[in-house]
Amino acid sequence: MKKTLFEHSKEIFDRIVGISSEEIDFNVTNQIEYAKIEYGKIIKVTIPSPLAFREKYFLEGNVFSDYDEYNNSIWSLYLSTIYHVAAHVKISNYSNYESWMKDKNFEKCWNVINFIEDAKVENFLEKNHHEIWQNMQMIKMLYDTYYENELSKNIKYSREAFSKYTGIENSKKIWREKAVKTLLKMPDHSIKQITPFLDFLYRHQQLLSKNNYPFCDRPKYKKYQKGIPDMVIPPKEELQSIINDLNESWIKEAFLEIQQLERYQKFGQNSNFDEIEISTENFGEFMRISNSNASDLRRLRNTLRTISFYVDSPAYEELGLIDMPAAVQRVSSQAEEIEIFEQDIPRKESENWVVVFDNSSSMKLRFEEMKKFIICLGETAEAINRDGGKWGLYSFNNKFLIVKDYKESYNQKVKARIGGLKSSGLSLISDAVDMGTKILQHDNRSANKYLIVVSDGKSLGSDQTEQEVMRSLLRAKKQKIHLIGVGVPHNLKKPFAFTVDYTETKKSVKKFIDSYSALVQSSN
Description:
By secondary structure, the protein is of the alpha/beta class. It has 16 helices and 15 strands. The chain has a seven-stranded mixed beta sheet, sandwiched between helices. Strand 10, helix 12 (367-384) and strand 11 form a beta-alpha-beta unit. The two termini are 33 Å apart.
C-alpha cells in the first residue's frame, strides 16, 4: 500500500529529528501559509502543504500557475521546509535565550535569535544533508535576485541610489557571512560566550537580512509575504525519488478529498451543519493515547482474533466438504477461481459500518476518555470489516467532520485525524444520524448496515428536540440499519439494537464486542 503525504512527510521528519513521536505533535495542513514550531512540554510542528485554488497552486507565499510544469519546484520547496524545521527541532534550544531576552523587545530578540539558530541549522544541513542544503541555497539565491530586481524597477530609486543601496546590502551580507563563521567556531555556543554578539545585533538590527525565505518557520508573522510567481527550482537528481513520491501522494489525496467533500456536501444539503470538512490532524496525540492504553489495545486485538464468527486462517472459502466434480474441473483447467468446497459452516457476510462521534461541548468532561474508546472502536471496525466490509468514522458538533471516509484505509493520516479531534461547539445529533443514514444508503455493497452513535444525547446549544432525534433514529431503522448506541441516555435507547453505557474504556469496549457478537449470531 502506497504511503500518504502525511506518512512520507513524517518519515522524513522523524529520520532527521530522531526522537519519539510522543514528544512531538507533527501536522501537515494547507490551512497555514508558513511552517510553525511551538515549543513546550510537547513540541508542536505544523508544515504547510500546497493549496489548490481556482486552478492555481499556493505554497509559502509563492503562486504557481500550472501544476504539471511547476510540481518539481513546489515539492522541492516543501521538502526544504521539512528539513529546515526538523533540523531546528533536533538542534535548537530556544530556552537558552530566556535570561538574555528579559526586559527586551520580543520582536527584536526574535530577529537576533532566528539569525543565530538558522545559521546553526544551515551548518547542520550542509554537513549532514548536503543535497537539501544546496536546494535551500538555490531558493535563497532566487529570492535575493528576485527582490533585487523588483527593487531596481522602483521608480523612487535613481540608478545611483540603487547602486549605493545594493553596495551597502552586499557589505552587510559579507559581514553576516563572517559573523556566522566566527559563531560556528565557538565550541558550545554558550549564552555567556555569545552575549556580546547578541547585544550587538540587538542594537544593530539593520545588519540582519531583510529577506524571509519561504522554508523558514515563523511563529508570528504580521502579513502575508508575496513570493516569486512561478518560481523555478532546478531539479536535483538525488531528491527526485522522494519528490516524485510526495507529488504522487498529494495528487491522489487532493483528488480524493475533492470527491469526498462533493459527496458529503450532497448528503448534507438539507442539514443544519455550518460546514462539512475534513478533520484536522494530530498524530502525536493519537500516539500518546494509544501508548497510554497499549495493554488494553493488545487485549482487544487478541479478543478480536477469538470471536467465533471472525475466522482468520484458513479462509472461509477453504473450509467444508470437497465438491469432487468441481475439484476435477479446477485441476484440469487450472482455474483457481473455481470453488471446490461446499460450505458447511455459516459464512460471515460483509458489513458496512458508519460511526458518528459527538465532539460537542457537552462531551467535554469525558472527551479524552471517549477518544480512547474511538481508537478501540477503530481497531474493532478494522478487524471485523477487513474482508470486504467498509467502515467510516465521522465526528459532529455544529460541523460535520470526515475522520475516515468508508473508502479510505485506516492509515496514519486517519489516525492523526482522530488525534486532532477536540470538544467544542453545538450538538446536532439529529442531523448526524441523518447523515449516517444517507452514507449507508449510498453504498449498496452490503445488506448488513450498522450505524453506531457515540453521544451523550444532549442537543447542547441547538433547538433540536428529543422527538427530532428519535424521528431520525426511526428513519434509519426503517431503512433496515442496525442502530448501536454508546453513551446515549435512557430516553433514546428504544430504537437501538443494543446500547453500551459508557463507564471506562476497557469495560465499554468489552460490552460492545460481546453485544455485537450476540447481535450478529442472532441475525444469522
